[in-house]
Amino acid sequence: MFENLTEKLQRAFKNLRGRGKLTEEHLDAALAEIRDALLEGDVNVGVADELLTNIRKKAIGSEVMLQLSPDQQVVKVVRDELAALLGKHAKPLFAAKPPSVWMIVGLQGSGKTTTTGKLAKWLTQHGHRPILVSTDVYRPAAREQLTQVAKAIGAALWPGAGTDKPIEIVKGAIKEAKLSASDVILVDTAGRLHIDDELMNELSVLKKELQPTEILFIADAMIGQDAVRSAGEFHKRLGLTGVILTKLDGDARGGAALSISKVSGAPVKFVGLGEKYDALEGFYPERIVSRVLGMGDILSLIERAEQVVDRKAAEELERKLRKSEFTLEDFRDQLRQVRKMGPLEQIVDMLPKMGPLANLPKNASVDEKKLKQVEAIINSMTDEERRDHNVIDGRRRKRIAKGSGTTVQDVNTVLKQYLQMRTMMKQYGAMALRGKMRGLGKLSGLS
Ligand SMILES: Nc1nc2c(ncn2[C@@H]2O[C@H](COP(=O)(O)OP(=O)(O)OP(=O)(O)O)[C@@H](O)[C@H]2O)c(=O)[nH]1
Ligand SMILES: [Mg+2]
């Protein structure tokens, strides 16, 4: 559903790749592209601009995450801000004492009746006993339509025969629910515009009498920003508990999904992705964000980096680098951090083979055993040796080799790599990760 947006965003990120450092100029160029992508994706202008302001602030103000390159850093900030925009996953609400009443409201043709069927199916699958009732007394055959829906999914239905007063119909359904131990009453309503006072008033009265736990606005994603606006109007008038976006299967832009909860003030609870009754999904912001960014691999890399990065240690390392105090001890800490990120093969696979990592062989085999060996060699040194490699003469090298079960040649290789890494990291200054990643590449060449 976000195909176009995803493609454009990826282009914007790509232009940041291979840059040594994130400058404001590059960032602004990327942000302009991101803005275009959002607007073309039919994201509400106000929402898009607020999002960009936040992204800019965070991208510039953020401490450099050592594990991430400039484009990955921007992806991370965009991901965080999109997640903040969409909020937390909102669960459907049930009454402490059943039956719960869920009112289904919205514009004409938005998918209310179909969604009522989908919800009944979802509830049944989650151990509930729903009963359906239609209060659409205006459109001929509307109630018959819901009867057919109930039949198709094998759900209970209250026909409400003998009256055409919505409130009477629902009261009958509540009685029936108590008799038949149904725990959720799904109230389908007639489509209406928020400016239709009489019909809006009908909903207010229903709300007052029924005390529903859910008033769900059914929004047709295909009408984009119009759906967003009417959700806001309904919310003002009725106090919605949630929004269900339908027809997302037919919407390649997805802007409504990104703006509707922010603009309307009501959380999206479900999305409809087709005409069938099982085409309903809970709305999970983090999944949506992953879909929008379409970068599963990089996102999981970012998550792993976040898990292991010890910010304090990173800052300390930066300070040392600036002062060229990077010792063998630090070298070992770096190795440990890299190893904490998980099986190295996986990490290397996730990295874009561009920029500083372009030199990594395609199927870089990073040998965990070799890394362990490096660590063993450094472990066999004395504190003094780890702090100042200059004291490690021939005799000491022999001792270290013996202590770590390696050869003098292995010890020499580690010292050489350490010195190379130190030089390189000095050159890159604060961009410590690059050094680390290169160190990684170099280590892979150990075997
Ligand atoms: N592709 C797709 N079509 C949907 C979805 N939800 C509903 N529809 C279709 O939208 C049309 C209108 O659906 P209804 O459920 O009758 O809409 P409604 O809001 O009850 O309409 P009124 O009662 O007349 O206001 C039907 O053709 C549905 O099959 C969806 O998620 N995806
Ligand atoms: Mg209907």
How would you describe this structure to a colleague?
By secondary structure, the protein is α/β, with parallel strands linked by helices. The protein folds into three domains: 3-88, Four Helix Bundle (Hemerythrin (Met), subunit A) (Up-down Bundle); 100-283, P-loop containing nucleotide triphosphate hydrolases (Rossmann fold, 3-Layer(aba) Sandwich); 310-444, Orthogonal Bundle (434 Repressor (Amino-terminal Domain)), CATH 1.10.260. Helices cover 58% and strands 9% of the residues. The protein contains 20 helices and eight strands. It has an eight-stranded mixed β-sheet, with helices on both faces. Helix 10 links the parallel strand 6 and strand 7. The longest helix is centred in the last third of the chain and has 21 residues, at 408-428. It is elongated. The two termini are 46 Å apart. 42% of the residues are buried. Mean pLDDT is 83; it is low at 350-364 and 429-447. The structure holds guanosine-5'-triphosphate and magnesium ion. Residues 106, 108-114, 136, 139, 142, 191, 246-247, 249-250, 272-275, 279 line the site of guanosine-5'-triphosphate.
Weakly predicted, low-confidence segments: 350-364, 429-447
Number of domains: 3
Using the coordinates shown, work out and report the CATH topology of the largest domain: Rossmann fold
List the bound ligands.
Answer: guanosine-5'-triphosphate, magnesium ion
Beta-sheet strand percentage?
Answer: 5-15%
What general form does the structure show? elongated
- Whole-angstrom Rg: 30 Å
CATH architecture group name of the largest domain = 3-Layer(aba) Sandwich
Spell the H/E element sequence. HHHHEHEHEHEHEHEHEEHHHHHHHHHH
The CATH homologous superfamily of the largest domain: P-loop containing nucleotide triphosphate hydrolases
The total beta strand count reads: 8
Task: Specify the structural class.
Answer: alpha/beta
Largest sheet: 8 strands, mixed
Q: Measure the end-to-end span.
A: 46 Å
Q: Tell me, what is the CATH class of the largest domain? A: Alpha Beta
Mean pLDDT: 83
- Count of individual helical segments: 20
Oligomer: single chain
